[in-house]
Design brief:
Number of strands: 0
Radius of gyration: 22 Å
Distance between the termini: 55 Å
Oligomer: single chain
Order of helices and strands: HHHHHH
Helix content: 55-70%
Structural class: mainly alpha
Number of domains: 1
CATH superfamily: lambda repressor-like DNA-binding domains
């Protein structure tokens, strides 16, 4: 496959490259196909969240039980997050992001 360089002038829409869309495939896509794809995407997002929670906990060097105690969350919640059964939302998600970026400061603030 070769690389093609295209110069685009946003003030002139005619310079935009033509997209490649298989109209027959697009027209043949059913609502059931879309629902299946959405379910697959949701499952993948759950697994991404599970990997993120597990990575944050392991970077901190904590067991699930220690992690649950440190962030004041039930142990079952941590297990559900890491197994991809549920995902953190709201404040828990924000806390995980802070723990990921500045772990020492976040843990110190939680003590």
């Amino acid at each position: 496959m070769s690389t093609v360089r295209v110069k685009v002038d946003l003030s002139r829409p005619t310079t935009l490259p033509k997209g490649r869309v298989d109209r027959r495939k697009l027209d043949a896509t059913t609502e059931a196909d879309l629902a299946i794809q959405q379910a697959e995407d949701d499952a993948e997002a759950m697994q991404d969240a599970a990997r993120f929670v597990r990575r944050v906990r392991r970077r901190l060097g904590l067991t699930q039980q220690e992690f649950a105690r440190r962030i004041d969350v039930p142990l079952d919640t941590i297990r559900n997050w890491e197994q991809g059964k549920r995902y953190p939302t709201g404040a828990a998600r924000s806390l995980l992001k802070v723990l990921d970026r500045v772990p020492k400061a976040a843990l110190a603030a939680l003590d």
